[in-house]
Write a structure and sequence with these properties.
The protein has 235 residues and is α+β, with helices and mostly antiparallel strands. The chain has one domain (5-218): q2cbj1_9rhob like domain (Jelly Rolls). 23% of the residues lie in helices and 25% in strands. It is built from 6 helices and 13 strands. It has helices at residues 11-14, 22-39, 47-56, 61-67, 70-80, 213-217, and strands at residues 5-10, 16-20, 85-87, 92-97, 110-111, 123-128, 138-141, 153-155, 160-162, 171-172, 180-183, 189-192, 199-209. The strands form 3 sheets. Strands 1, 2, 3, 4, 6, 11 and 13 form a 7-stranded antiparallel β-sheet that branches. A hairpin with a 4-residue loop joins strand 8 and strand 9 (160-162). It starts with a strand and ends in an 18-residue tail after the last helix. The chain binds 2-oxoglutaric acid. 2-oxoglutaric acid (AKG) binds next to strand 4, strand 6, strand 12 and strand 13. 2-oxoglutaric acid binds at residues 94, 96, 106-107, 112, 124, 126, 139, 189, 191, 202, 204.
Length: 235
């Protein structure tokens, strides 16, 4: 197994680190090809159908394997000292586009910790199925913002949105497909929407440390619950 190497950031000081490893990136390129052939091929003019299709990529076996890969688990241990990693949330898709399906939706500056509430070693693993540059849809982060803990904000149905949305020193993340951004749950970040044509599809998943003593004392609580819609079968 190849180890993941740091290509940007410093988790302790800046609240994020970007990791790369060629075999992992090759797996994501295969996922993107499959998404373009099989998933995009099923798109219609109905944005609700299209969003359901995008969400299903999170259930794709290749994507699940990606977030369970030895390389990622090894990196959580090597770079963050997570002794016993557990996935404490589902894999989430973030489709951003100015078309009917994306509807130019993007969560403004927010922090993830209030939507987790888990171990003190919690981390968000975020990746993109395609390359992301400084133009077009992307992800904007505020390096070092985690050091101030929880910023003033409001808990909403979509997440903990900050009162201050005019923040200096933000960084537009640049990653190649399949490189992995590890973010502190306190790192301030937002989706960068864009009027440009084209889409971004990022994926994220949360990890915690089952060996965390503080979490143990809090009886391993988690903000995530499983919800089952008992009416879907009627549609
Ligand atoms: O990828 C995105 O557009 C947003 C990701 C995000 O906000 C998150 O993972 O909390």
């Amino acid at each position: 197994m190849q180890s993941m190497r740091i290509v940007d950031g410093n988790f302790k000081r800046l609240g994020y680190v970007v990791l790369a490893c060629e075999p992992v990136q090759a797996r994501m390129r295969a996922i993107k090809a499959r998404f373009e052939q099989r998933f995009l091929g099923q798109f219609s003019t109905d944005p609700v159908r299209n969003r359901n299709i995008v969400k299903l990529l999170a259930e794709d076996i290749g994507v699940k394997r990606f977030f369970c890969s030895e390389e990622l688990v090894g990196a959580l241990h090597a770079h963050l000292g997570i002794a016993e990693p557990v996935q404490t949330g589902p894999i989430v898709t973030h489709y951003t586009a100015s078309d009917l399906t994306g509807n130019n939706y993007g969560l403004p500056y927010h922090q993830d910790w209030p939507s987790m509430g888990t171990s003190s070693k919690g981390v968000i693993a975020w990746t993109s199925i395609g390359d992301i540059g400084r133009k077009g849809p992307g992800l904007r982060i505020v390096p070092g913002s985690q050091s101030r803990g929880l910023w003033p904000g409001k808990q909403t149905d979509a997440g903990y949105v900050l009162d201050d949305q005019d923040i200096a020193n933000a960084l537009d993340v640049e990653v190649e497909a399949g490189q992995i951004l590890l973010m502190s749950p306190y790192l301030v970040h937002k989706t960068r929407t864009s009027a440009q044509a084209g889409w971004k599809l990022s994926l994220s998943c949360r990890f915690d440390d089952f060996a965390c003593e503080a979490w143990n004392r809090r009886n391993f609580v988690s903000a995530y619950k499983t919800a089952v819609d008992r009416n879907t079968y009627l549609v």
